[in-house]
Amino acid sequence: MFAKAATDTPPTAPPDEANLAVEPPAILEEFDAVLESEAFTPDESRVITVFEDGSARVWDQSKAPAGSVLEGHTGLIYAVAISPDGAQAITCSVDKSLRIWDLTRGSQTRAIENLPAGVWSVSYSRDGKQIAIGLHDNRVQIRSTDDMELITEFKQDAIGWVYAVSFNHDGTKIASTSGVSGWIWSTADGKELLELKGHSDEVTCIDFSPDGSRVMTGAGDNTARLWNAAKGGDSLKTLQHDARVNCVRFNSDGTRIVTGGTDNIGRVWDLNTGEVLFNLEGHTEAITTADYSPDDTRIVTGSNDFTTRIWDASNGQQLATLEGHADEINSAVFSRDGKRIVTGSRDRTARIWEAAPWHISDYPGEDSQTHMQRFNLWSHQRQND
């Protein structure tokens, strides 16, 4: 059901790796609404997608494209979060509500309505005991997942929506963005710990380092900034793009970060030196999303050029181009085992792709053959199975 390389016979010579195209066999149906976001459940068995028309669907990967429709919102759904155990999902909407869904049955278990404003963002703590939501009125709320009761709330001193919320590794802090600043808060009492000041344009994205000691933000001022999240809120490094930064993502040990923006180029940075290690060049329109594979061997990027691309995270070599979407890519994310990628597009479809592990020992063939030759041999055998 997953994507295979677009080759009919095993190659006798190395193919042009930068132009290797992969076709998606699993299309999660077409709708009359734009796909906003999607995520894998932790056990990789299901994908949840949300759409502009206020609907969401849960897809059983073993039965795609059949799916359960999650209906109840009366307005655009902005985001979805899946609980760490994969049992539940929360959707948030401009209709000023949260809805909690049982992903096994595809049914709503609870709704929190009449919130003070529409909800832009949502995040689970890593232990699954709390959620944070970001509202259109610059308010952040923390709620218990046991009963969804409000634990604390606080309001950011900025003009704009709360574009992103994210818990740190142990759930004691939360980062949020709005306007030209980022903030770090105590989850215990909602006390403002730090304001991350320095950007001169709208902050679009935020990511905690794996150990929680640093935060990376990206903004419309053409920069990504690394901040000390432990004390002082000092800006440690400024990483310069040639245009708006749309996405930032740490690797698993926090030594590197990938950024992407409207200059059509992805960049991988050494955070010890603040230098660019290499660029990810190939997209012809803005990069909107980026993610590391769990083992840090690959990077996936999505773009307004309708393509998703897989890159070697050690040197920036393009490994594959995922073609099939008919409009801009909004999001692309690796599954937790690194074997699959789910993409969402403004063409109203989500697609599941088989993202090869890219370890040469995983494929048939001879030691004398190149990595890509052995991958294509494996793909050819898959096609004939």
Please tell me about this protein's structure.
With 385 residues, this protein is mainly beta. It has a single domain (29-369), classed as YVTN repeat-like/Quinoprotein amine dehydrogenase (Methylamine Dehydrogenase, Chain H), CATH 2.130.10.10. 4% of the residues lie in helices and 47% in strands. The protein is built from one helix and 34 strands. The chain has one helix at residues 371-384; strands spanning 4-5, 21-23, 26-27, 35-40, 46-51, 56-60, 67-70, 77-82, 88-93, 98-102, 107-112, 119-124, 130-135, 139-144, 150-155, 164-167, 173-178, 181-186, 192-196, 203-208, 214-219, 223-228, 235-240, 245-250, 256-261, 266-270, 275-280, 287-292, 298-303, 308-312, 318-322, 329-334, 340-345, 350-354. The strands form eight sheets. A six-stranded mixed β-sheet has the order 1-2-31-30-29-28. A hairpin with a 4-residue loop joins strand 29 (298-303) and strand 30. The longest helix is centred in the last third of the chain and has 14 residues, at 371-384. The radius of gyration is 21 Å and the shape is globular. The model is unreliable at 1-31 and 62-68 (pLDDT under 50).
